[in-house]
């Protein structure tokens, strides 16, 4: 759906969706054609992937699911063990595991929900369910941690009840061993995770209209001036694989934290086992670990609020992006520039463009689309030509 003959400065403003405008190419991929005849896959839909991508995604999802099951087993054991031993430290460790379980569950749900096609009433798809699920999980974790902190303070101010140090130690040791198994299992992928990228078609030389640093995307490789064109579907596949790999790396860090916390609870249990009167060790451990659990959710809550408030993503410098768009050949002025996130990592942009005289609208749109995709990985852009 290209338009090469309509001048941009014709005096008739119109809303133009960049995602349906493509730069002229000498080839067409049949797999990019949607049932309605549109030649470009919507950035918010997730079409069936090829065999290599599907296998990579399936492997990552299975590993995430396995980690979630392991964490859930430890959590259940520690809940029963903590109640039986009357140890708040064990229960606070279980609360920390709850953050891992919910985080992994949200990651898996996001990978599953990304395959849901947008509907007429949910045109952006269901990606924000991930954000809402994370928000609910944070509230649950804060509630549980608040109850544990209250109970610990209550026991400190009043006569503490007896704690079974032996059972506390055994329960923590069980959690430590399972965490060690997960550490060794995930550790291999953490140090040897793939860094592949799909490349298709011929080489195309891209002119860098703006040299300033527009985006600061973590774990992103800067593209050279001589790069290969990657179609939107392949880019989406790579993004899914990259997000899953990042989730595995995040799970690795959580496992390390769980190992340290389990070791701390083991030490506290050993102390109480040897000196039953030192019950304050259990309470101090509870306070420390509960504060640790709450603190780990703060960055997540900050991201959630940012998405719901449609804040400019932290990876994007809006002023630099605007300067870069202005420097594109054929652009006279940019105003009403907005960038926000549908969910973490899925960026959307809209703006008004005042073009220079006698500039083809389709060519100008293709340049803007290419610039946004290369510099900030913004694949869904809406432009109003004035």
Automatic annotation (TrEMBL):
SUPFAM superfamilies: Cation efflux protein cytoplasmic domain-like (SSF160240), Cation efflux protein transmembrane domain-like (SSF161111). One of its GO terms (molecular function) is zinc ion transmembrane transporter activity. The chain crosses the membrane at residues 64-83, 95-117, 129-153, 165-186, 251-273, 279-301. Its main location: membrane. Keywords: Ion transport, Membrane, Transmembrane, Transmembrane helix, Transport, Zinc, Zinc transport. Residues 313-386 form the Cation efflux protein cytoplasmic domain. Residues 69-309 form the Cation efflux protein transmembrane domain. One of its GO terms (cellular component) is plasma membrane. It holds the Pfam family ZT_dimer. It is a multi-pass membrane protein. The keyword Zinc applies. It is found in: Membrane. Belongs to the cation diffusion facilitator (CDF) transporter (TC 2.A.4) family. SLC30A subfamily. NCBIfam families: CDF. This is Uncharacterized protein. The lineage of its organism: Eukaryota, Viridiplantae, Streptophyta, Embryophyta, Tracheophyta.
